[in-house]
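Lab notebook, design round three. We kept the backbone fixed and only want residue identities now. Task for the bench partner: fill in a sequence for the structure below.
Input structure tokens:
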């Protein structure tokens, strides 16, 4: 299986910094698993939009097979799950542009 690079959106990174170290460590472990196994989470209607759950939290990410990248974009509680999913769906084009920029910044030789 191909290895995927995992990126975090600025909004996601800012949000998780508000959580305690235990939660941040759990998110780091999810990120590690995603580099090796894209089937780790649960699809949200499609295989490229998924969530991983732990305790009362949901981590949302988008999988870009053509870029071999995973983009972690949001965290929510179960209570805010549907609102978060709807918001992510509204911003899919924005997230695509963001991940393409991040990949270019991390691989300047590919430009």
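Proposed sequence:
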């Amino acid at each position: 299986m191909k290895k995927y690079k995992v990126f975090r959106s600025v909004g996601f990174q800012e949000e998780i910094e508000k959580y305690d170290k235990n939660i941040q460590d759990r998110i780091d472990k999810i990120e590690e698993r995603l580099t090796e196994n894209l089937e780790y989470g649960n699809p949200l209607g499609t295989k490229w939009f998924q969530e991983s759950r732990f305790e009362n939290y949901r981590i949302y990410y988008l999988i870009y097979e053509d870029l071999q990248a995973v983009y972690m974009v949001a965290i929510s509680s179960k209570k805010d799950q549907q609102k978060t999913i709807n918001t992510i769906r509204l911003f899919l084009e924005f997230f695509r542009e963001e991940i393409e920029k991040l990949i270019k910044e991390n691989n300047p030789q590919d430009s």
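Keep this in mind before ordering anything: Residues 57 and 84 are 12 Å apart (CA to CA).
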